Amino acid sequence: MEQMVLTKLGQNCLQALLKTWLDFDLSITKVPIVKRLEQGRLSIEDYQQLLLNLRQQVIEGSRWISRCASSFDRDYSDVRSIVIHHAHEEHKDYLMLEADYIATGGKQETITAFKKNTGSEALHGFLMYRASQPNPIDLIGAMWIIEGLGNKMACKWSKYINEQFSFDTEITSFMDYHGENDENHLLELYKLIDRVATCQKNIDGIIRTAKVVAKLYQLQLEEIDNV
Amino acid sequence: MAVYINSTGRYLPGKAIDNEEIENVLGLINGKKSRLKNKILNSNGITKRHYAINDKQQTNISNGEMAALAGKSCIESSFIAASKIQMLSCATSQGDLVLPGFGSMVQAELNLSEVELHTSHGICSSSMMALKAAYTNIKCDEADNALVIASELTSRLFKRSRYEQVTNKAVDFNAEFLRWMLSDGAGALLLENQIRPTGTSIRIDWIKSFSHADVYPVCMSVGIAKDNEHKSWQDYETYSEAEKAGALMLRQDVRLLENIVSIGVQGFLKLITQGKVEINKIDHVLCHFSSKYFKSKIFDMLETAGASIPESKWYTNLYERGNTGCASIFIMLDEFIKTKKLKAGETIFCMVPESGRFNCAYMHLTVME
């Protein structure tokens, strides 16, 4: 891969973001349901629970990204365009997730009526709060963590799940789709990093938000076993 | 108290064995050529290695003897007599005996008197643990010097007869994988609390490691059979039953192996964050990667992180000397120091990732006047 981030501050930001992602990756590997998934001990009920719980955050996900876009003023109109594009691309992801759930034998009414778990509540609450601030550039940290997880789902989790279960129709379209689109999203994120990581204060904000989102996402995954 | 590497040594048994000759030494499993061999060798890029066993799979030289020869060559090119050595710190993944500790056997072989002894046990990073024990001992004024030796004799695990003993005969990928990766050898470093006018006195700035055994399952092991991850080789009625079950084979869970790249980079970024290392001040990188394949993965991830180090700064002798497990980093340092014209002030960053249960060790060195 050629060097995507060109400025010195951008590089610092990128290093700190990747470090935050790798810390998050290690932490969630210890979450019980993730452990079962990655060690070949996932039950179909586990996978259904995973989808049920993820869906609530995914369906809300497009809301915070849309709000985030609308919070950028004229000085950040270029950033706003990228974020709008991102929001548009993802705002119907939850439909794929629902189709996967139904393909595993789940019922539409169950997934539609399912409530956010406590981790999802906290994650969504934090994201909406940050997205409502003026020019919320720190949310690039949130996008980095969530994109990274999308990539992990597509490259790793989907394979493990398909090795453990066989159904007539596809049950991992949501996870797989994230892998296909991720490279474009990643390129957009690289562009954004160069654009907004222009001072240490901005970088600190991005990293702090990345860390909070990572922690709350972990809570969301942990809470799956407590629903 | 600053600690310096003032001498190095290595011992590689017998002649270099090229890729075509490997099966002449290790033997053909059930008389058949391996189907995996070329695929794995192409991926790891190793072209030559050394074995301590002969073509009848008999041991020519023990692990302890190899360690002693590396230690001897290290002492002989140093400023001090063997009788002045105060500490001996040794590492191996499998000594000749199960007990006592490997260090005792090496001490006897070297005929060193009344040294303080340390043995560290593990896989690739155990040499860094042995080095750290010696380094901290000198640093806190408990010793003036220490001889650190890492040695491996894994070829004994790769003899054809080992695989032929397994009851169901079919040797799976994970059991065969390392047969084409690892080989034998020993390396040694002499540490002292003073600079010597060698021209290559090298200060150890720090040694740090991060272990992730709490996160991942076992990835490289001896002692468990394929399908029974909780039953240890010692839990079988007899040792021969353990062998028949395949519990004594050296195994690598290849699928888990990819995690080594991300934990390696994670630790590196952590050290940057802690201010222990600055990328643009690193002059040389010595990384114990097990194969060409993983080197490119590490490169890619460092680039993604905006933390890449130009390829011209990376040094390895993996392809010509083989992957000798924990001994690799010392064998690499020895050849690097002896063949490169190092200048005072240059910095060397070393990295030793271990896939056993995911430990990654790092070290920062500075060349002295």
Automatic annotation (TrEMBL), chain A:
UniProt superkingdom: Bacteria
Gene3D superfamilies (UniProt xref): Heme oxygenase-like
InterPro entries with a match to the protein in the record: Haem_Oase-like_multi-hlx
Q: What is this protein called?
A: 3-oxoacyl-ACP synthase
TrEMBL record, chain B:
Q: Which Pfam families match?
A: ACP_syn_III, ACP_syn_III_C
GO molecular function terms noted in the UniProt entry: 3-oxoacyl-[acyl-carrier-protein] synthase activity
- Domain Beta-ketoacyl-[acyl-carrier-protein] synthase III N-terminal as annotated: residue spans: 124-198
Q: Which UniProt keywords apply?
A: Acyltransferase, Transferase
Q: Does the keyword Transferase apply?
A: yes
Please provide the Gene Ontology terms (biological process) for this protein.
Answer: fatty acid biosynthetic process; secondary metabolite biosynthetic process
Would the keyword Transferase be found if you checked this record's keyword annotation? Answer: yes
- Record domain Beta-ketoacyl-[acyl-carrier-protein] synthase III C-terminal: where: 275-350
| Name recorded for this polypeptide | 3-Oxoacyl-(Acyl-carrier-protein (ACP)) synthase III
The residue stretches assigned to a coiled coil in this entry are none
Tree of life domain = Bacteria
